[in-house]
Specification:
The chain has 1 helix and 14 strands. It has 237 residues and is mainly β. The protein folds into 2 domains: 37-156; 160-237. The strands form 4 sheets. A 4-stranded antiparallel beta sheet has the order 1-2-3-4, with no helix packed on it. It has a 4-stranded antiparallel beta sheet with strand order 6-7-9-10, with no helix packed on it. It has a 4-stranded antiparallel beta sheet with strand order 11-12-13-14, with no helix packed on it. The radius of gyration is 22 Å and the shape is globular. Residues 1-29 form the signal peptide. Keywords: Signal.
């Protein structure tokens, strides 16, 4: 009897791996039930959790216009380790079912998500607790994932490391001490901006006196990169 080729098993394994790579993200999970989206905290890490806001974002382009795209909750509760916290949970609709897209429980409050840049960008604004009021935002971009085979999907963008590169763009002696107000909604020009007051070294944490900066960004290698700053000096008198 002729023996089967030794190549058969590797071929079968490679075929199986290829199939798995191209299966939808929820292929092995039952779709989530969102009927209690408005009343009950879903996929939460918070105790005594309350739903603050909830809703859905539908597709706004092409043949899919009006079809489900995202659903969300913003939540409030607490953890034993961190005390009072806020959270957000995002759900994604694909292949006829809802699945968990992302969540975060590292801020004091989160705002409802917003689609921008002709619905290729999703922004969840958030702020941490305390006087620092640092950013807890999330930003996601839809496009080429960079995989060997071309595939489009949502990718989370790094919107924190830009702080390491901003100092040379600021006026001498001025700094950013707290969170910034991101603005990713200028869909017509595709502008990515943030606005912030500026502090002098002898300012109190509460009271910046160095004027205002509008920071302009680009996205490179899935990271927000500052490219220029518009400076508004403090008003005199």
């Amino acid at each position: 009897m002729k023996r089967p080729s030794r190549l058969i098993l590797p071929i079968l394994v490679a075929t199986g791996v290829a199939i798995l790579l191209f299966l939808p993200r929820n292929a092995f999970a039952a779709g989530l039930d969102l009927t209690q989206l408005d009343q009950t905290c879903l996929e939460t890490q918070l105790k005594n959790c309350k739903v603050l806001t909830s809703g859905r974002l539908n597709s706004g382009w092409g043949d899919a216009e009006g079809d489900p795209l995202f659903a969300w909750q913003t939540q409030s509760g607490f953890t034993d380790a961190d005390g009072v916290l806020g959270g957000f949970v995002l759900f994604y609709y694909a292949d006829g079912a809802w699945s968990l897209f992302d969540s975060g429980f590292d801020g004091y409050r989160f705002e409802p998500p917003r689609l921008a840049a002709e619905q290729t960008m999703l922004h969840v604004a958030g702020v941490t607790a305390g006087t620092g009021a640092y950013n807890a935002d999330r930003l996601y971009l839809f496009g080429d994932t960079g995989a060997a085979a071309y595939r489009e999907d949502w990718t989370r963008i790094d919107i924190e490391s830009w702080r390491d590169d901003i100092k040379p763009l600021l006026p001498e002696g001025l700094e950013i001490w707290k969170g910034v107000d991101f603005d990713f909604d200028d869909w017509f020009y595709g502008a990515l901006n943030a606005r912030t007051p500026l502090w002098r070294a002898d300012d109190g944490n509460c009271c910046p006196s160095g004027g205002w900066a509008t920071i302009h960004f680009e996205i490179e290698d899935n990271s927000l990169v500052p490219v220029s700053v518009d400076y508004l000096p403090p008003s005199e008198g």
